[in-house]
């Protein structure tokens, strides 16, 4: 793979990673705020950049076998910039993995809180039903008592 192709792939991959990190931050904010509809939309929006990132990564992987010393660069500066952008992308991807982990932990925590709310709600419903049944039973047992004064 020549240096121009490599530079283009690295730039495109960097852009895809940047888009994913931005969506990841929005995703984490949505999770923390409990906005599940927004979360679903963000997850949907992430599909295209993820596919792009995967495809570009596969294409870049092909360049791993090339001897970097045989690749002709217009300048040493261009080579350094390409390498720096590649390293920045790798750092962003590590950040993205951290964001995803934070989202997962927050969702697990939220799930536990929701399960507890459901348990409490079910307990309250059961208590209300028992009270209603006991009130009905008390109202229907025995006859009527006339408490009017004459």
Kindly summarize this structure in a few lines.
81% of the residues lie in helices and 0% in strands.
Mean pLDDT: 84
Shape: rod-shaped
Rg, alpha carbons: 31 Å
- Can you tell me the residue ranges where pLDDT is under 50 for at least 5 consecutive residues? none
Give helix and strand order, one letter per element, not per position: HHH
Class by alpha and beta content: mainly alpha
Overall strand count: 0
Percent helix: over 70%
Oligomer status: single chain
Strand share of the residues? under 5%
Distance between the termini: 109 Å
Query: Biggest sheet, in brief?
Result: none
Topology of this protein?
Layout lengths: L2 H31 L2 H26 L14 H65 L10
Helix pairs in contact: 1-2, 1-3
């Amino acid at each position: 793979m020549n240096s121009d192709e490599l530079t283009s792939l690295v730039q495109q991959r960097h852009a895809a990673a940047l888009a994913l990190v931005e969506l990841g931050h929005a995703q984490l904010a949505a999770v923390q705020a409990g906005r599940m509809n927004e979360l679903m939309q963000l997850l949907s929006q992430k599909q295209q950049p993820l596919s792009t990132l995967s495809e570009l990564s596969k294409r870049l992987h092909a360049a791993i076998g090339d001897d970097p010393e045989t690749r002709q660069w217009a300048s040493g500066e261009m080579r350094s910039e390409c390498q720096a952008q590649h390293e920045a992308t790798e750092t962003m991807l590590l950040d993205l993995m951290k964001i995803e982990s934070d989202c997962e932990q927050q969702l697990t925590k939220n799930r536990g809180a929701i399960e507890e709310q459901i348990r409490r709600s079910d307990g309250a419903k059961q208590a209300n039903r028992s009270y209603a049944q006991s009130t009905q039973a008390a109202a229907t047992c025995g006859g009527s008592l006339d408490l009017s004064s004459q």
